[in-house]
Amino acid sequence: IEMYHKGLITHQIDESSLRVVTESELSEHKDPGNLWLAVNGIVYDVSNFKHRAGQKVLLNQGGTDCSGSFNRFHAYVNCANLPGVVTIGKYRPDPKTNKKLDPSMPSLYEGGEEEEERPKPGRSQHPPVIFDDHPPVKQDEQKH
User: Fold this and answer.
1) What CA–CA distance (Å, rounded) separates 25 from 9?
2) Where is the composition biased (Basic and acidic residues) (predicted)?
3) How many structural domains comprise the chain?
4) What is the CATH number of the domain that holds 56?
């Protein structure tokens, strides 16, 4: 399927035809020549992709779900369209690795418990932080 986006032809992935790649399997592909990344639920082989910031950028993220980093810098990019990138499958995290970091926090994969009541939006329960390293702004210097 092709779609037109900002004057470019982009190829959309038919996810129903993709195999499932687990977190365990993904983690085995983190070396040059065998480098996979998960981005937004899809696993890509980026072994032959030439990142303009260098291979080290990819190797640092190799074998992991790097959606957060990717979206921070390249949210507008469709990985499937990049030269040298091959679509491998759909990413599925391993349930056993989705452990609670804090026992009081429910796990998203386990359904969790009832959510604790949170403070209402508005005032913070913490006092404001005051930084003394900047001189005070004079009234005539403030912009309105």
Assistant:
1) 31
2) 91-102, 131-144
3) 1
4) 3.10.120.10
Helix %, strand %, coil % for the chain, to 5?
20, 20, 55
Q: Are strands 19-22 and 86-92 parallel, antiparallel or unpaired?
A: parallel
Cβ-based burial of 106 (10 A; exposed 0-12, middle 13-18, buried ≥19): middle
Q: Is position 69 within any domain?
A: yes
| pLDDT tens figures, 49-66 | 999 888 899 999 999 999
- Has residue 85 been placed in a domain? yes
User: Can you give the residue range of the structural domain that contains 77?
Assistant: 17-93
What pTM did the predictor assign?
0.59
Strands 19-22 and 8-11: unpaired
Q: Which residues contact 125 (CB under 8 A, 6 or more apart)?
A: 119
In a domain, 105, yes or no: no
Residue 29: count of CB within 10 angstroms of its CB: 20
pLDDT tens track for 1-55: 344 333 334 456 677 789 999 999 999 999 999 999 999 999 999 999 999 888 8
Backbone angles phi, psi at 34, to 5 degrees: -150, 65
36, part of any domain? yes
